[in-house]
């Protein structure tokens, strides 16, 4: 407390300034006068009395100085003076100052923008109570791993055993996403939601803003006709009417009582703050009790549910994982459900950011490298300026300034520059963050919530201070050291050679960082090109897609009839050349899968049960999307009534009957369903994205899809040679005319879907490219600056060389060569660094090896090319110097 | 007592600080002051203000000289940083007034906190000197 008081008084003293100064002078004067008076009374002459008084008092100025030290904060005082001096210096030399500020501001601005995203996605805690103790629990088992599912959900019995018995978990909840058709008044709507166990909300620590949460009684089959609705839905459909409580809503045609409204922004589990988030699914807006049915409670194999838990205080996810894995293994043995079960426990935040963390961190690393290059650049500039300021520094040293004090002053100048740069950088990062959010893929959850907050500002300030030290310290030390030699030698003339070693090191480090950045950027660009070149398996142009949902009260034949009517209706819209319906669109995720049994040539059933995904389609599907038929025929309108048929993708046929020349006419079935004859083979299409592996698919006519599960949701694909997006209103009205209860969920052109599916790759590739381009520019400016400076200094020497007979060519190579050899050294270092670091990029690469030779070679050539090109202009000027003028120079 | 302190016992009583301040402080008066010297002087200032009541800087300096019998002739100016420090610590307060000889002067007076500080400082000082006295009993000036 005392210390604080003292500090405050001193701070006040610092700020009071001249007023105190006058008072001190007066006080000292009055002291001296009183002493003089006394001395006169003792018999001295007035002059003598005054002299004795002053002697007795001691050195007035030094006393004042120590008084000032006591009064204010001397470090702060001198810092203020240094800053003022620095600002004066900037005004004297605005060109230099603005170049430095611009370079550093761009560097810090870029880093701050990317940090804004790091902060929003990786650092900011989730909006739940004690979010660091929330974990997701998933199962892994070898059988599922083989089918391509590293992580699966849990089943009722698994949850019962793990959720209740584990010591490391305080409590657990279970949920499953579910979409509802919301009908009744207004437009029919497809609304995303979930079935959740009664205590999910209290587990997360979120309460309804209105009404109440579910009770345990409501979490029973038969009692679950109650719902909680989201804030957006409440606003959209109920105009925020509080009387919605107790009212009924029609979900899938059945009435449910609204018992509460969740707070704004709450979208768990399919909101952006969730590992289960996918951009294809809308944010959750309706919640119903889980109310596990009898078979869900007892069937250990239906891993359809997601589990979320709160760790007990003091337990880590690893400890929980060990305990739960042991329990899961025991459970599987008891139920005879297969071997090798184990459990993954991940913090909720890690689970959400698992897929994008590497990309974000790599981009952050890249932008920090750009900042470092900018620092090296500015340090070079300061070295040059330090040389010009040598006379001034020598003079100050000679007048008695301490070298430490001078270094401190030069550093303060750097700090002032960096401070201004940080102010500009914050403005830049505001725009930069907007830009990043705009180019970021929708698939990055929580991206939209990135803002410049206190943490981001603190980062910008810290970055400014660090960069000031980084680019300012070496030049300041160098300038003062050289100033001291000058002071000793008494020379003000700049004669000694440039501090070539340090400046060379700076150039080399710029080249090395540039080479590293280029390698990363080229690798990502190559991956992106490789992804874009992947054949889709269909023609994406001129296609409009829209997703719809059937009311669940419709039986299968009614659904098929409605789909037929829809397709016929849409075909009559002018401009439409082909229409088809499909249960799951390509590029929107994998469809559901079924185990399939195949029949061999000699009617022996093949025992293997590979998992096949299926799509139900109308006959024109292949024609509409332009999928090539490789054998057999397409479906016709008559298919799927008497003789059940199927069409296989190429890879599915090869997998079922490897080596068989012609699978047409063979049969397969799902489980105990009826046998389907294969009538055609078509090209493979990518189901969940361009960069995912091709999975075997089989196509069925909609009519036959019942044995595979009648699809509730489906999509229309419409080919139109004009602008397909213009058709949307007409198609909408067709759908409404045919059925009032068909909610349309998502309309997009196929081109748009292709773009969306590659955006997670385009984002890092584009950003990395932008950083690399900026780094190339920085390095070019750096080389140009250093080389032209050295040419200017060596004008005299070059003149002598030319006079003595050196050819223009000799001069040219003499200037360019050192720059290129520095670039060579830098590139070697940078490529070695890249070789070590690029394996971290692996998760972002597609069909490109992290040590791809051509990438390294191209990057090396580019760095050396940039160095040579930037050195060429000053070299050319040097070569055209007139020797006579040169010798007169200086 | 004083001659004994010419021994090298630097931590608590730097001999030049206590015995020979004028020389030591004339050479480097501005920044070289030791905290001990400042502390000692501060205690003397507080005691002076307690005995004499409100007093200006010159008066305090005179009083200290008189009491020490000119053994301790301080460089009067060094008093002012000490006065400022005491004021910052809230031990004394100041205001402008008129001296006995009709000179405008800044008068310092002891505050409550200053009185407390004086009592505490005096006790600490007596303790220290007591210990040192016992420690050095029997030692004469000639030992050196």
Mean pLDDT of chain B, nearest integer? 72
Could you tell me the radius of gyration of chain A in angstroms?
A: 38 Å
Provide mean pLDDT of chain A, rounded: 84
Oligomeric state of this protein? heterodimer
User: What is the tally of beta strands of chain B?
Assistant: 3
Q: What amount of the residues of chain B lies in strands? A: 5-15%
Describe the largest sheet of chain B. 3 strands, antiparallel
- What is the approximate shape of chain A? globular
Uncertain segments of chain B of ≥5 residues (pLDDT<50)?
1-34
> What's the order of the H and E elements of chain B?
HHHEHHEEH
Specify the number of helices of chain B: 6
| Biggest β-sheet strands, sense, barrel of chain A | 6 strands, mixed, barrel
Strand order of the main beta sheet of chain B, please?
1-3-2
Which bin fits the share of residues in helices of chain B?
Answer: 40-55%
Structural class of chain B: mainly alpha
Q: Show unreliable segments of chain A.
A: 491-497
Strand order of the largest sheet of chain A: 2-3-8-5-7-6
Q: Which strand-content bin applies to the residues of chain A?
A: 5-15%
Largest interface comes to: A-B, 30 and 27 residues
Straight-line N-to-C gap of chain B:
15 Å
Structural notes for this entry:
The complex is a heterodimer of chains A (890) and B (144). Helices cover 53% and strands 14% of the residues of chain A. In chain A, the strands form 3 sheets. Chain A has a 6-stranded mixed beta barrel with strand order 2-3-8-5-7-6. In chain A, helix 18 runs antiparallel to helix 23. The two termini of chain A are 63 Å apart. Mean pLDDT of chain A is 84; it is low at 491-497. Chain B has helices at 15-19, 21-27, 35-52, 57-67, 79-88, 112-136; strands spanning 55-56, 92-98, 104-110. Chain B is globular, with a radius of gyration of 16 Å. With 144 residues, chain B is mainly alpha-helical. In chain B, strands 1-3-2 form a 3-stranded antiparallel sheet. Chain B starts with 14 loop residues before the first helix and ends in an 8-residue tail after the last helix. Chain A binds chain B through residues 2, 5-6, 9-10, 13, 23-24, 26-28, 30-31, 33-35, 37, 56-60, 62-63, 65-67, 69-71, and chain B through 25-26, 29-31, 33, 56-58, 61, 75-78, 80-81, 84-85, 88-90, 99, 101, 103-106.
